[in-house]
Amino acid sequence: MVRAVPDTHGEILAAAARQFTVTGYRGTSLQDIAREVGCSKATVLYHFANKEALLAELMAPAIDVLRSLDDQLNGLTGAAAQEVAAQGFVDLAVRFRREIAVLRGEFPELLCQPAFAHIQQISDRLRDALAGHSDRPGARIAALVLLAGISEACAEFVDIPDDELRPALRTLARRAVEPVDAPLAHPPTTEDKDS
Amino acid sequence: MVRAVPDTHGEILAAAARQFTVTGYRGTSLQDIAREVGCSKATVLYHFANKEALLAELMAPAIDVLRSLDDQLNGLTGAAAQEVAAQGFVDLAVRFRREIAVLRGEFPELLCQPAFAHIQQISDRLRDALAGHSDRPGARIAALVLLAGISEACAEFVDIPDDELRPALRTLARRAVEPVDAPLAHPPTTEDKDS
DNA sequence: TCAGACCCTGACCGATCGGTCAGACTGAGG
DNA sequence: CCTCAGTCTGACCGATCGGTCAGGGTCTGA
């Protein structure tokens, strides 16, 4: 058999993905990655300008999809935006479970890096759409709980098949989103003094 | 005015809490904490055996409450367990927002430390109760989404008053929990082949 | 045969990490 | 006055981090 040209670049990328998933970005050293690939740390830095570039290349596909979901959301309002945001994010999260697991927890620090410059704004818009562009605290809190919870669930349930995880999350999202067009299911309480 | 005996121990604890909240446990060095307090790093290590002991003392109250919730849950089943788990966790999360923010993301690594030996099992039982002790993937996924989402929301909305955050989360939890006693709201789909 | 691009490496760099240690300072008690 | 416990510190330690660099192999095309 012909030994294919050793795709060191790809091997490093794959090893980094595995390690980042388990021990996080910060918790994984270039030495760790090099050891798993079976090369020197200098080789890792030959293929990638620095550790950050490695992460950026790893996350690029997920970020692209997130960006396109943001475009799709642009102009939509009310229940339509909620539906698209919920279903779109569920699909994205299920598909890019590994990438989400990498970011888990290190989100705030990682967002400072130039590669993730606009992620914060996009996810803010996503959250806003999921809240039905409402200012009600209940709606905004529900949106954040859903986005964060779905992310965490996808990162944790790595071994559940997509076809099982996706419909469960879709159902949950539909149930948990604060309705914005239809009248509220629960009667307004006494604390409706604002607006 | 009498200058009270300088409570360096407490000052270090408070500074650590602030720093951990912002930059995380791993991302905060003993030097950082010492700088904020205005003492030397050696002083920090005079008052606390090591960095881990500092974290442990910081988290102790939250862990106590979590443990008592676990006791309270012991023996409860079905909808009763779901209700207690949901409301109990919401209260705990709202109250210990800062502590949750500290753990944010570094959960997996931090759980390895002896101070947090049983947290994993407790949170597993909590999740199980929230799922109504059901094996249905939908119920288990909903429980995880809720627990993770509530934690994240509490860590993020640090400036929302408790009285606003708590009822919103309670309402959301009640809406999002997969009902286990009452018949399902949504008709069973075609994929009900298991069990 | 030779030049040059490509791939890879060991040795090394400065910075920072958590942690140790001997000793200085201080205030209370005998 | 001396002692001693409590508090605090600068200097230092080994380990590890991300990253640099000069140079060695190897392959290819002129």
Q: What characteristics describe this protein?
A:
homodimer; 195 residues; mainly alpha; Arc Repressor Mutant, subunit A; 2 domains; 10 helices; disordered C terminus; DNA-binding
Strand content of chain A: under 5%
Number of helices of chain A: 10
**Morphology of chain A:** elongated
| Mean residue pLDDT of chain A | 87
Q: Work out the helicity level of chain A.
A: 55-70%
H and E string of chain A:
HHHHHHHHHH
User: How many domains make up the 3D coordinates of chain A?
Assistant: 2
Number-wise, the strands of chain A total 0
Q: What's the oligomerization state?
A: homodimer
Instruction: List the chains of the largest interface with their residue counts.
Output: A-B, 41 and 41 residues
Q: How large, in whole angstroms, is the Cα Rg of chain A?
A: 20 Å
Regions with little confidence, pLDDT below 50 for 5+ residues of chain A: 182-195
What is the CA–CA distance across the termini of chain A? 73 Å
User: How would you sum up the major sheet of chain A?
Assistant: none
Structural class of chain A: mainly alpha
Keywords (chains A, B): DNA-binding, Transcription, Transcription regulation
Protein name (chains A, B): TetR family transcriptional regulator
DNA-binding region (chains A, B): 29-48
Domain HTH tetR-type (chains A, B): 6-66
